[in-house]
Design brief:
The chain is mainly β and 200 residues long. Helices cover 10% and strands 50% of the residues. The protein folds into two domains: 78 residues; 87 residues. The N and C termini lie far apart (61 Å).
């Protein structure tokens, strides 16, 4: 094949790749799972070595088979008709979230109880102070039904998502409590948090 023939083959291959969706070029990004109801507007998704609880979704049928991929704290779920929607992950179990190298060690300093009014009812939330290497984080609503409960002085492994509003706390070796990140303060060289620093 001459030089012109080789260039024609390369350009043809590039055109074919451009016409194929990224998900089809990388099918491993999507995994198959089964959806089951887990409360009002909440679902449990199992498949691909993961067990995920998610909310802020549309309607799914019990036992419905879907394709999904995780992007940060969101899950893109695609039904049999090819329709996709974004859901919010509240807790996950399985090997995909258990890579300890992504976590750092922190200490629970204490907590305060906050009362939130939700649909004319009062909900109590424990707002924990978590001290990491560089920041002190304020977290609450940890895990499904606030299953994550911590004690002052407890040492935990966690990872924060810089561009998100969630923070994962590792427990049970390969499970996580996904907590809501309410704020963070930079720790000064002397060890104290800067006043008013980093609130979100």
């Amino acid at each position: 094949m001459g030089p012109m023939g080789r260039w024609a083959a390369i350009l043809t291959a590039m055109a074919i790749c451009a016409a194929v969706p990224a998900a089809a070029q990388n099918p491993q990004q999507y995994q198959e799972g089964t959806v089951q109801p887990a409360g009002e507007h909440s679902y449990e998704l199992t498949g691909g070595g993961l067990q995920v609880w998610m909310t802020h979704c549309g309607e799914f049928q019990p036992g419905e088979t879907v394709q999904y991929r995780i992007e940060g704290r969101s899950i893109r779920v695609r039904d049999a008709g090819g329709n996709e929607q974004d859901c919010t992950m509240t807790e996950a179990q399985g090997s995909a979230t258990s890579a300890a190298t992504n976590y750092e060690t922190g200490e629970i300093l204490g907590y305060k109880v906050r009362r939130d009014i939700v649909e004319k009812s009062v909900r109590r939330a424990k707002v924990y102070q978590l001290r990491g290497e560089k920041f002190i984080y304020l977290i609450d609503y940890c895990g499904r039904l606030q299953a994550g409960k911590f004690m002052p002085g407890q040492v935990v492994r966690f990872r924060a998502f810089p561009d998100g509003d969630r923070l994962d706390v590792l427990h049970g070796g390969n499970q996580t409590y996904s907590c809501q990140l309410e704020g963070m303060s930079l720790i000064e060289p002397g060890g104290a948090a800067q006043a008013g620093g980093g609130s979100r």
